[in-house]
Amino acid sequence: MVCPTKSMKRDRIIIGTSLAPFNIEKQRRAVESWIENGFHVISCNAKEEIDIVRKTFSNLSIEFVEVDRAKDKTTKKLPYIKDILNIASSKANEVCGFINSDIILSKMPEGMYEFILDEADNSLVFIRRNEIKNYNDIENLDWTFHFDGIDAFFIDKEMVQNVCDEGFYVQSMWDLYILLECKIHDIKIKELMNPIAFHLRHAIVWDFEDSNQLINGFVKKEYGIVKHTYKYAQDLWYKILAENCEKVCFCNRLNYKCLFVLDSINEDTIRSINEQDYENKEIVSGKKSRDIEKDYDIIFFVDDRVILSKIFCKAVIYIMSQFETDGLQIGRFFVSENKGVTYYNELNRNMDVLKKIHVDCNIYTCVYKKNNFEKQNVKTIYQPIAYEMIKFGSDQIVDRIKMDKEFYIVPAGVRGRMWLSEWNAKNNNISDFLGFIDNNPEKIGDEIMGNRIYPMEKLFENPEATVVLASKYYSMEIAKQLADMLLRNRILNASYMLFMDDGMIGYFNLEKYKKINNKKDEEETYIKN
User: Fold this and answer.
1) What is the residue-averaged pLDDT of the chain?
2) CA distance readout (Å), 154 to 72, 117, 175, 480, 520
């Protein structure tokens, strides 16, 4: 059998994108990483831009294709996702895809390209990104997982014809649309859980209002829903992630012997370990572990409430071998169940909140290589491969709060607009909303969604009003600012709201959760002593 050369291999997967005539070095580094991993790259651009980007990136092996139409935005002519897919699929031998132009792919190990190719057969395989502050963060495992969206996908070229053109373009909510389209047309959906996509963090630039209009038209056409369409689509998106998405993970170290050490017996935890897509493993209790740890390559110390994803073992082995670390602390994500449906809750969407829960309560799953009892070179990561179930009916950690006061939303950003859309969908009476609050003087006096934006000082005019803090990236800083303004007791952080219904909010109580974990730690210490 003749092994394919790099040139023969590249056309098997073609990546479509749209390079911009700015942020050049960031995009250059991203595209170089795609090419180094063996992908053939096509940049689709409007007539006004194609000569500029062709000249700018002339030293890279990129094929440029002019598109007939593009969304006219202030900074760029944005091609439509369906047009990019049509062009890429027409040139691909087997698989095509799309990737945002500033996403860096880490170096993939031998065999991973073929793995993606196989998994994309009659399927769509998508990737979520990890935020970094600088490029060295990749090798140092200093990532912040981006839970809410996807940044790249691969799809069988024959499936592209089933994806309808719904008007979504680059920088719109195409990630929500593409998963719903695949579900509608019965295209199998998979998530590649290897952390290979990275992104230098920057301010959100997409147009929420424009995307919301696209979602409205799409949901009305496909589902016949005319009210609160964004919330309806978002719920479907999360349901797909939780119930209709197969998690896949490339791992080329299947010979490792893995030992799972449980601190106590929990049927759900044990079941999730037994269902691992990895055969070479054993489960023991903490009392027996020391006698046999020397016989295993990797040891997992697992808390009794954690539920492990099917590919957990493979993902951990990949990370430890690919990034050369001898130990990991792995954060868990949170799921909930309502009316028989399991889904992700709000705690996952703000990584600062998720990290605070873990630091305060020490609920990491710990993994060490053999003989690393000194626990050196240990990194902490948050990847959605381990979960805990939070039940809404448990008043031990979930407070039911009646939103019967006037309230403001801080700040006037995309997250606040998304929260207000969800609140409106769940509540008929919205007259208690007073407006948005923001620190940015350029926003003051403007209106969004028909509501005025005020400065922070406005909060003193109504001392009884609640402050809903709705920020994905700056919630900790804003919470401190509000606390310094003596407004601590009025803050409700949207990232702790597990559910909203008829004026009621199910609010995750971190202090109660902390007490449960502290009590558990005390019991374990007592038993050990």
Assistant:
1) 89
2) 26, 8, 12, 42, 44
Angle at 260 between CA 256 and CA 263, to 5 degrees: 160
**What's the token pair of residue 459?**
């909060």
Is 522:529 a contact under the CB 8 Å cutoff?
no
Query: In terms of C-beta density within 10 A (0-12 exposed, 13-18 middle, 19 or more buried), how is residue 159 classed?
Result: buried
- 143-148 — which CB contacts under 8 Å span 24+ positions? 143/195, 143/198, 143/381, 143/382, 144/201, 144/351, 144/382, 145/351, 145/382, 145/383, 145/384, 146/199, 147/333, 147/344, 147/348, 147/349, 147/351, 147/384, 148/349, 148/472
241-246: Cβ within 8 A, 24+ apart? 241/179, 241/191, 241/344, 242/335, 242/341, 242/342, 242/343, 242/344, 243/341, 243/342, 243/343, 244/183, 244/189, 245/189, 245/190, 245/191, 246/188, 246/189, 246/190, 246/191
Give every CB contact of residue 156 below 8 A, 6+ residues apart in sequence. Answer: 94, 95, 120, 121, 122, 123, 124
Cis peptide bond prior to 463, omega within 30° of 0: no
Helix/strand/coil for 182? helix
| Under 8 Å between Cβ of 527 and 421 | no
**Selection from 437, 471, 414, 474 nearest residue 208 by Cα:** 414
In whole angstroms, give the CA distance from residue 199 to residue 157: 26
Question: What is the predicted pLDDT for the residue at 1?
Answer: 30
How many other C-beta atoms are found inside a 10 Å radius of the C-beta of residue 314? 24
Place of tokens 């003193």: 460
pLDDT for 476: 87
CA distance 16 to 380: 33
pLDDT at 373: 62
Contacting residues for 408 by C-beta, under 8 A, at least 6 apart: 433, 434, 435, 436, 437, 454, 458, 459, 465, 466, 467, 468
Q: What is the 3-state secondary structure (H, E, C) of 408-477?
A: EEECCCHHHHHHHHHHHHHCCCCCCEEEEECCCCCCCCCEECCEEEECHHHHHHCCCCEEEECCCCCHHH
Reference 430, options 506, 502, 505, 346; nearest CA is 502
Q: What is the pTM of this model?
A: 0.90
In the prediction, which pLDDT does 76 show?
Answer: 82
What single DSSP character describes residue 94? S
Residue ranges for the chain with pLDDT beneath 50:
1-8, 522-529
- Decide: 392 and 506 in contact? Cβ < 8 Å: yes
